Amino acid sequence: MVNAVRTVLGDVPPEQLGVCDAHDHLFFGSPRLPGQELRSASAARAELAAFRAQGGGAVVQWTPYGLGRRAADLPPLSREAGVHIVAATGLHQDVHYDDATLDGLRGRLAEVFVTELTEGIGTSGVRAGFVKVAGGFHALDAHARRTMTAAAEAHRATGAPIAVHLELGTGALDVLDLLCGELGVPPHRVILGHLNRSPDGVVHRQAAESGCYLAFDGPSRANHATDWRMPDAVRALAEAGFGDRLLLGGDTTTAAARSVDGGPGMPYLLRRVRPRLALAVGEALVTRILTENPGRAFGVEWR
User: Fold this and answer.
1) Nearest CA to 217 among 174, 257, 260?
2) Which residues lie below 8 Å from residue 272, measured CB to CB, with a gap of 6+?
3) Each residue of 17-67: pLDDT tens digit?
4) In the predicted model, what is the mean pLDDT of the chain?
5) Rounded to 5 degrees, what are φ and ψ at 289?
6) I need a labelling partner for 246 at 20 to 30 A (CA). Which of 98, 101, 222, 231 fits?
C-alpha cells in the first residue's frame, strides 16, 4: 500500500488515523523503573477507552525491543477500543538492558529491526510501524551510534521512519548530524521526541529547519516544567512556518501516571493540553498537529 501507516491491524491510509497521540506507551517495563511497569492488559484497555472517550483515534507506542511491548496483546486491544495502534521496533539506551540481551543483539540489530518491520515481532505476527532509538544527555555514546546506524539501515531497507528519544530533550542537532548527515536518512523520516524538556527555541528552530518532525510529549511530569512552556515553544515554531512539523504525545511510562490509576494518562493530552494549546495557536492548527501531521510522520511507502 502506498503512503500507509503500519498499524497492528495492518496498513491504513494516513487520513484514517484520526486524533493521534504520537508518543505513548500501553506496555513498558525497565529495570530503571522497578515496580512501575505497565503490564496490565486490563489497565491498557481502560486507558484506551478513556482516550477514545476524549475523541482519540490512534496511539503510537514507542516501546522498543526488550521492554515489554506485549505485541500479541495489541491487536485485540485495538479492536476492542476502536483505536489504531502503531508498534515500534528499535532499541532504547543501554541502561535499560542487561548485558546478555545486548550481547545477543550484537552485530544483528539491523536484521532484527527489518524483520520486525516486515515479518512481525516474535511470533505475534504484529509488524512494527517505525524504529525507536535513543540518544544520551547532550551526547551520543557508542551504543547510540550503533543503534542509530542499524536504524538507518532498516530505514533504507523498508522506508520506516525513525523516532528518537532525546534524553531530557537534549542532543537534537547531534542526532540529526548523525542520522541525516553521516547516515543519509531523509530528515522528514526522523521524529525527535521530548523537545519540550529542553525549551531552547534556537535549537528547536534549527531542528525544524532540517525538515524533521518535532514531538512535544510527556506533559505534566512532576520533574519537568512542560505544560506552561510548551505553548510558547509551539507558537514560536508555528509562527516561523513549521506548524506542519509538530507532533503531540502523552508518553505515559509508569503505572502511576495512567489516568485509571489517578494520573493524567492518555486522556490528559486531549482533555487539558489540547484546549490550552488552542489558546496559544488556535484550534485549527492544534487539530492539524493531532491529525494530519502524525499521518505524514508515520505514513510510509513501504518497500
Assistant:
1) 257
2) 219, 220, 264
3) 999 999 999 999 998 888 889 999 999 999 999 999 999 999 999 999 999
4) 94
5) -65, -35
6) 222
Q: Would the pLDDT of 83 be above 60?
A: yes
Q: For residue 188, what is the DSSP state?
A: G
How far is residue 195's CA from residue 265's CA, in Å, rounded to a whole number?
Answer: 19
Q: How far apart are CA 26 and CA 42, in angstroms?
A: 10
Q: What confidence category does residue 197 fall into, taking pLDDT thresholds of 50, 70 and 90? A: confident
Joined grid coordinates for residue 146:
550503533
Phi, psi of 149 (to 5 degrees): -65, -40
Domain span holding position 43 = 4-300
pTM for the model: 0.96
pLDDT tens-digit series, residues 222-241: 555 567 788 999 999 999 99
**Closest Cα to residue 55, out of 289, 277, 269?**
269
Q: How many CA atoms lie within 13 A of 132 on its CB side?
A: 25
DSSP letter, residue 212: -
Answer yes or no: is 194 a known binding residue: yes
pLDDT the model gives residue 260: 87
Nearby residues of 263 by Cβ (< 8 Å), 6 or more positions away: 252, 254, 256, 257
224 is in an annotated binding site: no
**Annotation-wise, does 23 bind a ligand?**
yes
Q: What is the DSSP letter of 131?
A: E
Mean pLDDT of 261-284: 94
132 is in an annotated binding site: yes
CATH of the domain at 130: 3.20.20.140
H-helix or E-strand spanning residue 249: strand 246-249
Question: What is the tally of structural domains in the chain?
Answer: 1
Query: From CA 128, how far away is CA 232, in angstroms rounded?
Result: 33
